UniProtKB/TrEMBL annotation:
Keywords: Acyltransferase, Nucleotidyltransferase, Transferase
Function in brief: Catalyzes the last two sequential reactions in the de novo biosynthetic pathway for UDP-N-acetylglucosamine (UDP-GlcNAc). The C-terminal domain catalyzes the transfer of acetyl group from acetyl coenzyme A to glucosamine-1-phosphate (GlcN-1-P) to produce N-acetylglucosamine-1-phosphate (GlcNAc-1-P), which is converted into UDP-GlcNAc by the transfer of uridine 5-monophosphate (from uridine 5-triphosphate), a reaction catalyzed by the N-terminal domain.
Chemical reaction(s) catalysed: N-acetyl-alpha-D-glucosamine 1-phosphate + UTP + H(+) = UDP-N-acetyl-alpha-D-glucosamine + diphosphate; alpha-D-glucosamine 1-phosphate + acetyl-CoA = N-acetyl-alpha-D-glucosamine 1-phosphate + CoA + H(+)
Keyword Hydrolase assigned: no
TM spans (from-to): none
InterPro entries: GlmU-like, MobA-like_NTP_Trfase, Nucleotide-diphossugar_trans
Protein name per the record: MobA-like NTP transferase domain-containing protein
Pfam families linked: NTP_transf_3
Cross-referenced CDD domains: GT2_GlmU_N_bac (cd02540)
Similarity section: In the N-terminal section; belongs to the N-acetylglucosamine-1-phosphate uridyltransferase family.
GO molecular function, one term: UDP-N-acetylglucosamine diphosphorylase activity
Lineage: Bacteria, Bacillati, Bacillota, Bacilli, Bacillales
Domain MobA-like NTP transferase: from-to ranges: 5-129
Organism: Paenibacillus whitsoniae
Amino acid sequence: MEAWAILLAAGKGTRMKSELPKVLHPVGGVPMIVRLVDKLEAMPITGIVAVVGHRGELVEKCLGTRVTYAFQKQQLGTAHAVLQAEPLLKGRSGSTLVLTGDTPLIRPSTIERLLAAQRAGASAGVVLTAIVQDPTGYGRIIRDAVSGEVVDIIEEKDATPEQKRITEINTGIFCFDNESLFEALPGITNANAQQEYYLTDIVKVMRQRGISGAHKRFGAVTLEDGTEVMGINTPEQLEEANRAFYARKGIFA
């Protein structure tokens, strides 16, 4: 069965205080996105699509022909970014991983678990989650009280006080049935606090359209070590990621 990967690498990374695209900042001496591509190339992945935007020519120069490129002219949200890969992937069967380009510490074994979970359950999608002490700033995972199935992901700015107390968070990393992914994407709107097209809304859209639910659940794989998917949005977080990398180089390399 074919497997594809979409790398989200279009963001400006304004808080990095650098003209360099965020995904090109090094962790362990290697640009973040290169670390991700290295890991994916070591797996049975059919093809990799990098969605680029801000100074995308620098990302292209860095990765060359190792990936195929899709261009996001306006940063309108993560769902909009994934939609830019539609001309390259729509109509293909198999599984599609969606990874953020600023998660270089994710372990290959975690990516493999996510892919295996989607295939084993024939799921419309599977989200990678983590349990954290302080979930502030992250999307919260909403599960059915009876079945435990993931039924929604609520962004922090749209969450109720009760939802903000949930400590299971969205890491921004998914694995989808490819056909289900591109069937659901057009149903995502920007009716939210940020007026962005959130990929997280795909859980709700898939249920509304009957793409998931019943026999085709939306699953989850939960991380035990949230360090793998720590966000890197500031110079301080970049330093923290480098410390984590060198402290456990054999794990995160």
